[in-house]
Amino acid sequence: MSKIFRVAVILLISTFAAGLNAAAPKVSVIVPVYKTERFLRECLDSILGQSLRDIEVICVNDASPDNCGAILREYAAKDKRVKIIEHGRNLGSAIARNSGTDAAKGEYIAFADSDDRLHPDMLKILYDEIIKGDFDVAICNYFDETPQQRPVIAPITDYKVREHDVSEWITDFSSPFKGDKRPASYLVVWGKLYKRTVTEGDGSREPLRFSPEHGTADDWIFNICARRFIKKYVSVDAKLYFYREYGESLTRSPFSKSKTDGFCKIIEIVRSRPDSAPNERHKNIICESTLFCMFENFIFIRHKMSFDVFCHMVRRVYGLYAVGLVSWDCIKGALAKVWRVVCSVLWK
Q1: pLDDT higher than threshold 70 for residue 245
Q2: Using an 8 Å Cβ cutoff, are 42 and 72 in contact?
Q3: pTM higher than the cut 0.70
């Protein structure tokens, strides 16, 4: 009798464990939502229409004052993969992403902005590649979508894959894709798949989360801090994420004092953390590239930097220089990069 009882208990435990594993999706997609009702349906359709079906979509309504809440409830009623987290007041993208990450059950974590879109095969391609080599992160290329230039949605039949070790992670803010110098490929959290151990660890450390103190640079700093928990990653050169240049999220808003402060915070963290880069040379490169991203916003009208914000930027950069966080060579290097960009625009 005792033997039968033991067998029954083992079977019960096995069944329960199998049920738990079945309940865990392959990928959790976290979508902070705020004032994007114009594009939200298109975003959700692109995620729910992924060829990788075993996903959950965690939408964090950050007290959006428009019709976003009603749209989310409509989609959750139609598709059980949609989960909604409601914030009672607007707390910002960092807290919204943290709420979604805390609730995620997937083996891997992906982030998407609620006014962007995903290629139908994005998650499947990244998932297939990340598990092939047991990588910590998978990165795809992205398409800058404008009203005049929209991506053609076609099957992805051929793409190049490259393996990287952590020494290449954000060493110069350039893209991992050959000939592509856009910094966003590394710095932003969209267009990536993170193994859960990157965000949650193995129980020996605090989970990796976004800090609201870092303002609009919270995702940049998240990726810089993630370096400690990445051994190797893989890049896929296919443009699988469609970044909407004319969207309505915070990343598209006019350049502000808070954005300036966010860039400066990046430099402060890079200088203060011994593990933010492999060596001092790489730290200098990151700081120079951060300054370039700031200065570039003064040149291009689309960011609408006011004179007041420009003066604030000058004061903050001088403050970094005065305390030795950036050198004059670093500032000159950033200005030289801006000049090259201006010349390429004027002479093309």
Answers
A1: yes
A2: no
A3: yes
